[in-house]
Request: fold
Amino acid sequence: MNISFTDGMSRAAELTRAGKLDEATALIQALLRGTPAPADRSPPITRLKDASADVIEGTFTRLGDTAARTAPGAKHKQGKTLHDTFAAVTATGLPRRSAKAPLMPDLPKGAQFLALTHHSAHGSRAYRLYIPAKRPEGPMPLVVMMHGCTQSPEDFAIGTGMNGLAEEFGCLIAWPAQPQTANAQKCWNWFRPEDQGRDRGEPAMIAGIVRDILQDHPADPARVYVAGLSAGGAAAAIMGAAYPDLFAAVGVHSGLPVGGAQDVVTAFAAMRSGTTGKLHAAPMPTIVFHGAADATVHPANGAAVIAHAVQAHPGVKQTRVSGIAPGARTYTMTSHAGGDGRSIAELWEIDGAGHAWSGGKRGGSYTDPKGPDASREMLRFFLQHRK
Reply:
């Protein structure tokens, strides 16, 4: 059965609403892969006049919302939504964490992995703060790490190995946590307009975490950076665009450009086929990693993030190099350098890699140990830049 993506999404919404979750899941998987949809075994379901409006604003909740919007006077029914189904689908193709993975990263003697919480009028978020045992004199760079869907700060710290590099480079590392009360799969809500701009929603809370750390810990306000994976990568791009006064550079791994979606339906399309997003007024030095075989977030999204970063630098020198990582994956790195030789933007495209942190540790989820070390390269890129 060949149907359009939009019609397929509408049909998946109808199937989910009717409780036919297996059929809805199979249909979504086919739509994301671009393969023919499976035979529809269900009888016709009365179509809504505006199926997309029902998916986003009506009976179905947004991905991760805790309460469904229903018609006035209607009783609320708890149940699985299309967006919950989609979140489960997108997780099925990702590498799984070992069942024996530790719950907490190992800490060298003298290091701290603090459990803190930011509170403000915009809401509250828990976060971890890694303070290295080897502390340089003076203020330290601060890197904010935004985890992907289904992950936790502890899991992300294990998988990226960033805390270990903090000992080498003398950095503070912040690990914000997205709770399930904000998103059923713990994804950052990068696709919602209310979470895409300055001084509102999730960006305001992340900025609040940065300000708390700058106030209470020896962090250098001129060297604050943000990076993330997948939904966290999209959120990192948003943070760089919304708060150029806070951040000096951005790292986006397997993510999407700012403004790439405005709701769950357009998020589907952006992840499946790529999006150019919306150019923003304050381009930020940006490093991007993306697997060429990523079937969850289309690699074209990585190129779009780089296009945003170089928009205000027409005279940059472009250099392309290829190499083989110690784990045996080949890659191509395209660098855009300014007149002073510093990279304004770097795009790392990893052959054969899927939707996982390149060069990550096997103990964490969604990692690809065979690729080049994204954590080390991000820190190297970040530390070239100051506000």
Remarks:
- The radius of gyration is 21 Å.
- The chain has eleven helices and twelve strands.
